[in-house]
């Protein structure tokens, strides 16, 4: 398998796809394309690399899969549903619902707090709409942990698809100083110390300085 991704520093959707491939336990290659560079515009226009012009794209042999949820489902079909989705029906329904809610929503959080795993903006002022997204996410995490997560430290006990979908949100909360209470707060800490998340952040720190996207820091400057 080969996964095409954006910079690890910034590409939140790539993080989801990469965690999903890691979870398969299969060997894979990575191609990281630095976003907003000449190389990015060139590779983005190549359907033989990125059929949707977006990352992540997974190539499994000659088959391309794009959209993070479709990548998760491809891998779950091939390598075992239980590594991705809870076995219990009610838990699985909740996991699929919150993963889809993440995939489609939380637009205020996503636009006000772009993922930048290397940055830190303590005292960042959240808009009311972003605060609503944070409250909703915090409630979902606490409910998953309380109702379905008793067999381990992740949302549904063992690490799975819902954790992959929310991993970039955990990174955003860390960058923008969003600290949650109770079960949701404990879950934040658990995710920040997951070995694959720390591996991703270490790789981001090793990316070339000229891959820096200055507009992200410019946006952040408006709210600190
Ligand atoms: N819904 C897609 C979102 C993918 C996406 O928007 N990726 C960003 C990078 S994090 C991208 O490729 N942006 C380029 C563009 O939209 O032109 C998914 O789940 O994978």
From TrEMBL:
Residue intervals of the GST N-terminal domain: 1-83
A Pfam family assignment: GST_C_2
InterPro entries on file: Glutathione_S-Trfase, Glutathione_S-Trfase_N
Protein name: Glutathione S-transferase
Organism: Pacificimonas pallii
């Amino acid at each position: 398998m080969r996964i095409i991704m954006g910079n690890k520093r910034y590409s939140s959707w790539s993080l989801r796809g990469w965690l999903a491939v890691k979870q398969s336990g299969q060997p894979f290659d990575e191609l990281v394309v630095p976003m907003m560079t000449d190389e990015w515009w060139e590779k983005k226009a190549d359907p033989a690399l990125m059929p949707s012009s977006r990352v992540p794209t997974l190539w499994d042999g000659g088959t391309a899969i794009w959209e993070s949820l479709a990548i998760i489902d491809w891998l779950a079909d091939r390598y075992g549903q239980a590594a991705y989705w809870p076995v219990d029906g009610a838990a699985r329904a909740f996991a699929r619902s919150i993963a889809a809610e993440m995939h489609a929503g939380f637009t205020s959080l996503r636009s006000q707090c772009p993922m930048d795993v290397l940055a830190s903006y303590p005292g960042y002022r959240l808009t009311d709409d972003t605060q609503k997204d944070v409250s909703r996410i915090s409630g979902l995490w606490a409910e998953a942990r309380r109702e379905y997560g008793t067999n381990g430290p992740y949302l549904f006990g063992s690490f799975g698809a819902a954790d992959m979908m929310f991993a970039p949100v955990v990174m955003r909360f860390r960058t923008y100083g969003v600290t949650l209470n109770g079960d949701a707060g404990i879950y934040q800490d658990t995710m920040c110390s997951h070995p694959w998340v720390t591996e991703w952040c270490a790789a981001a720190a090793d990316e070339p300085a000229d891959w820096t996207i200055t507009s992200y820091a410019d946006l952040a400057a408006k709210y600190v």
